[in-house]
Design goal:
Largest sheet: 16 strands, antiparallel, barrel
Radius of gyration: 38 Å
Shape: globular
Strand content: 35-45%
């Protein structure tokens, strides 16, 4: 009973507070709605959020709904509704206008990526609730990147005229590394076989360079499908990945990734059949594209390769919308997989137009000239594939995507080329050491897409214990709009051959080069060079020939060079099969002081010995001859042999004629051969480490007898040994250990050679 007076008092106060509101807002009709205080928001926009309109009665319930609706926009921090006679006055205090959105301390994302994550933009009205949503989205993006320790705060700075500056202050912290990648259920495939194909790798000694040990949700999902792909490529068609999870360690500094696998049995290829409505070529031609052999272990890769080949064959007849669907019939009793390739060719189409989008710097004609798809011609699937490879080979773009949307014209298709450009300018520094050049250093500034024209401009400088080179060059791949390349180069080269050849040289000059692709694999280059070379630093007890050539220098060499090359090697960086041949012809004497004809041939053959294990045989044969006209051929134009680049087990310039004063004299003809077996190093395949065994043979001599103070012999030298090559993240590393098997007493031998870093 004591609480009754208190309740009556509270009820009385409530009625006293609401009575004026009811009195002001109830009864009568709204003749006018006036908005006060709105600066950034249009008054009509404010009115649109009200639940009442002019001509409607004053109603307290509708007015409360109006206030609620206005607050829900996030545009206002204070709202009052007042009645002035028959007018409704809406008084608002706006939230500030966002002047600028900044990000401080971000390294994992660039500003453009962050702006895509954050929905609030400059010129928007600030809303605290929307800002909190953006803050949560940023934190989630950093967690996806593996930065679980990232701290992100939103700072607001008030500016004049009711404006505000937003700054997201980011302290990223260290990335959460992947401490371990576990596989559960793998009994038939080793953990190493599987994990080397994954994007996420456990931390090792190279992780600071590769960052493969950083967790990313998208990477984990990719690896889940990749585990399945590894099993499919090894015949386990029933294999499945039951789960892929990443568990954060208690200290939140590392992850343990676990893939749970059910393997199943291994299967072989069974019968292969093609069902097709394509009748423009005999069915036998389709079966020729199938390299799958019955009874061999099933691999998904061979199925994909067959689809690509069938797509090219059928697509080249103008079928842009063909569908090839492989149908698998798994025979669990015989452990085989029967395949049926169902081909539906669709309708034949012609190319309507080629559209290029996404290029802001690269000119359209630079992209179009790489296109092997021609407007008006019959559509060709292989031409589209080739065009994509050519555009990717330019190295101007992050991504190249070619699609074939249907056009408005029946029986015609558009070809849309969408590119995403990347930076093509580069400043590079290099350093290293080798037993040949000792220390090495290099620097270059290059622009591979100069002014968006596809031209390459390079300024380079390199220095080693025996050489100093400076070069300036401009290369145009399509001279005057034709399929002819052109280049101009200026250079200055200083060489110190005092240790091996007994002289120093200083050359400067320039060259002009034109190139032409005669066929898909055959090309030729024609160049003219003018070089001034001075021989100096010859010791007083050096060979007579060297002292005579020093006295006759400097030499002006006017030379025309032709290179004829044939190249069918599958991959220049990591060759598995194919062959290449090059014949270089140098003719000096069209002016100048030096006159000779030089022919040099270089031939390579690669053949897989054991394809699955990437064991490759390599045979290289080289040879050359120089015929001088009149005076002796200058020593700097002769051939030399020895070292990692020609005959291992011997020093650079260590083979061939040598003076009694121990100077290499070079030769006017040579022949050499190399036989190698290359194979990846077990456990380090994914690091780009390979090993090799080799046998090198070679001979070097002169057509004309040298002076009596020179040891000369045209005998064959031979060496054998082993080596290791590593395509490391900081440059190529090469090591070789060779033992001379046939040599002369004056030859200079060296068993161990290595080169670390920049090769010059």
């Amino acid at each position: 009973m004591k609480r009754l007076p208190t309740l009556l008092l509270m009820l009385g106060l409530l009625l006293a507070w609401t009575a004026p509101v009811q009195a002001q807002t109830q009864g009568g009709v709204i003749d006018e709605i006036r908005v006060q205080g709105a600066r950034w928001i249009e008054k009509e926009t404010v009115k649109s959020y009200l639940s009442v309109r002019e001509g409607q009665p004053f109603n307290a319930s509708d007015l409360r709904k109006s206030v609620k609706s206005l607050y829900a926009t996030g545009f206002f921090k204070n709202i009052e509704l007042e009645r002035e006679g028959a007018a409704l006055v809406v008084k608002v205090v706006e939230n500030p206008l966002i002047q600028e959105v900044n990000f401080k301390g971000a390294y994992a994302f660039d500003d453009e990526e962050l702006k895509d994550i954050v929905k609030i933009k400059a010129r928007d009205i600030f809303s605290k609730s929307e800002a909190e949503k953006d803050l949560a989205a940023l934190r989630q993006a950093y967690r996806v990147k593996g930065l679980f320790l990232a701290q992100i705060d939103l700072l607001t700075k008030a500016l004049p005229e009711n404006r505000v500056e937003l700054t997201y202050k980011i302290r990223e912290g260290e990335k959460s590394k992947v401490r371990e990648v576990r596989l559960v259920g793998n009994e038939k495939l080793s953990a190493k076989t599987i994990t080397k194909q994954l994007v996420i790798q456990p931390t090792d000694w190279l992780s600071w360079l590769t960052e493969k040990d950083t967790y990313d949700r998208e990477k984990l999902l990719f690896d889940q499908s990749q585990v399945r792909r590894v099993y499919l490529d090894n015949g386990y068609v029933r294999a499945r990945v039951d789960s892929s999870v990443a568990e954060l360690t208690p200290d939140k500094k590392a992850f343990v990734v676990t893939h749970a696998i059910t393997e199943g049995e291994r299967y072989k290829f069974g019968e292969v059949e093609i069902k097709s409505d394509f009748d423009e070529a005999p069915i036998e031609d389709l079966y020729k594209q199938v390299e799958i052999e019955k009874g061999t272990w099933y691999t998904q890769n061979e199925v994909s390769t067959t689809i690509d080949k069938l797509t090219d064959l059928v697509g080249d007849f103008g079928y842009a919308f063909l569908q090839i669907s492989p149908e698998t019939a798994i025979d669990d009793e015989n452990k085989t997989v029967n395949l049926t390739f169902n081909i539906q060719k669709g309708r034949r189409v012609y190319v309507n137009r080629v559209e290029v989008i996404g290029n802001t710097r690269t000119r359209d004609e630079v992209i179009r000239r790489e296109m092997t798809v021609v407007e008006g011609n019959l559509f060709s699937a292989s031409a589209v594939r080739k065009a994509k490879k050519r555009l990717q080979a330019l190295d101007f773009f992050e991504t190249v995507e070619i699609t074939t949307p249907k056009s408005d014209i029946p029986d015609k298709v558009d070809v849309q080329v969408k590119v995403e450009e990347k930076a093509t300018g580069a400043f590079t520094l290099g350093a290293g050491y080798s037993t040949t050049d000792k220390y090495m250093g290099s620097a270059s500034v290059s622009q591979n897409n100069f002014m968006g024209k596809g031209q390459k401009l390079t300024l380079s400088f390199s220095l080693s214990a025996s050489r100093a080179d400076f070069g300036l060059g401009l290369y145009e791949p399509y001279f005057m709009g034709r399929d002819v390349s052109a280049g101009i180069n200026l250079f200055n080269r200083k060489s110190d051959n005092s240790d091996s050849g007994g002289y120093e040289s200083d050359s400067w000059g320039g060259s002009v080069t034109f190139g032409l692709n005669l066929t898909k694999n055959l090309g030729t280059r024609l160049s003219y060079s003018l070089t001034n070379t001075e021989i100096k630093g010859v010791a007083s007890n050096a060979a007579l020939l060297l002292r005579q050539q020093e006295a006759a220098s400097p030499y002006l060499t006017s030379m025309v060079t032709n290179e004829l090359s044939w190249d069918k090697i599958d991959n220049r960086l990591d060759p598995m099969k194919g062959h290449s041949m090059m014949l270089t012809t140098d003719l000096a004497g069209l002016g100048g002081d030096v006159k000779f004809l030089r022919l040099t041939s270089d031939n390579n053959v690669y053949h897989p010995i054991y394809k699955r294990a990437k064991v490759v045989g390599h045979l290289r044969l080289r040879g050359g001859m120089i015929e001088g006209f009149g005076d002796d051929v200058p020593i700097f134009e002769k051939y030399f042999m020895g070292g990692m680049r020609s005959l291992r087990g011997f020093k650079s310039h260590g083979v061939g004629p040598r003076s009694y004063s121990d100077d290499a004299m070079g030769g006017t003809y040579f022949g050499s051969g190399t036989a190698e077996v290359q194979f990846p190093v077990y456990g380090l395949e994914d690091k780009g480490v390979s090993a090799l065994t080799f046998v090198d043979v070679g001979m070097l001599d002169n057509f004309d007898a040298l002076a009596t103070d020179v040891n000369d012999s045209g005998s064959v030298r031979m060496s054998a040994g082993v080596g290791v090559n590593w395509r490391s993240p900081f440059g190529p590393l090469q090591f070789s250990f060779g033992v001379p098997l046939a040599s002369e007493s004056w030859d200079k031998t060296r068993s161990f050679d290595f080169s670390i870093g920049t090769s010059m």
